[in-house]
Amino acid sequence: MKNIHDLKSVLGEMRLKGMEQSLEKVLERATKAGMSFQEFLYNLLLEEKKDKQEKSMLYRLKQARLPFEWTLETFPFHLQPEVKKTQIMTMAGLEFIQSGTNIVFTGKTGTGKTGLAIGLMRKALIQGYKGKFYKAQDLLDDLYASLADRSTSKLLKRLSNFDLLLIDELGYLTLNQNQMNMFFKLMDERYTKSRSTIITTNLFYDDWYNILKPKSMVDALLDRLKHKCITISIQKGDSLRNPTG
User: Can you give 53-108 as a three-state secondary structure string?
Assistant: First the structure.
């Protein structure tokens, strides 16, 4: 007669780690509650499902490469009265992703734009959406570098397929025409696929023309971006990085 160690060994060989790790716990609970075999098996399978979901979530978080562990629950809303907590927490319901709506945080340095953006992306990743964080300059550098090995199409396809793309600090950058062309193509493809993009920037929309050229392409870019877009302007308040704030 096979014992529990034999069962755990088989589960391990089959890479059913959730079931392997919880077998004794579920078996003990089933014995005490007088569960049927069907109930015991169901509960064991639930443990495997939970394990796979947790590992999948951790993988999404790792792949997104969020630079900070910021969350909406820890954001100091009391220090930034210009930000409406109710609006942000409503957005955390993630309907904006389902509708392909973009979000643009604009305002002074240190006012919480990146923190709020990362908090929203973390919510999305935990709920099963796939996303990616990019500093704007890093994104443009990657797009430009892809020209050398002719991987631009592959990169654009991958980036356009993310449920949520976060582009941080649009404004602290320099673009050549090739980068502008590829950036526009990326945003156009995401618009066509109704994919949501979050952008943080210290620039008003009119100021985008100072860093992005030509004007006709910027017009087309903003037309697509703002078609379905929530713009949150944070122009007042001290920097949240100020230790005395």
Answer: HHHHHHHHHHHHCCCCCCCHHHCCHHHCCCCCHHHHHHHCCCHHHHCCCEEEEEEC
Q: What interhelical angle do 215-227 and 177-192 show, nearest 10?
A: 30
CATH code that applies to domain 72-234: 3.40.50.300
Q: Who contacts 78 (Cβ-Cβ below 8 Å, separation ≥6)?
A: none
Q: Output the pTM of the full model.
A: 0.88
**Hey, where are the domains in the chain?**
4-61, 72-234
56, burial (CB in 10 Å: exposed 0-12, middle 13-18, buried 19+)? exposed
Tens-digit pLDDT profile for residues 189-232: 999 999 999 999 999 999 999 999 999 999 999 999 999 999 99
pLDDT digits (tens, 9 = 90+) for 30-65: 899 999 989 989 999 999 999 999 999 999 999 999
Tokens of 27: 């078996």
**What's the Rg (C-alpha) of the chain?**
23
Contacts (Cβ under 8 Å, ≥6 apart) of 26: 40, 43, 44, 47
Token digits of residue 50:
């939970």
Give one DSSP letter per residue of 180-192, joined into a string: HHHHHHHHHHHHH
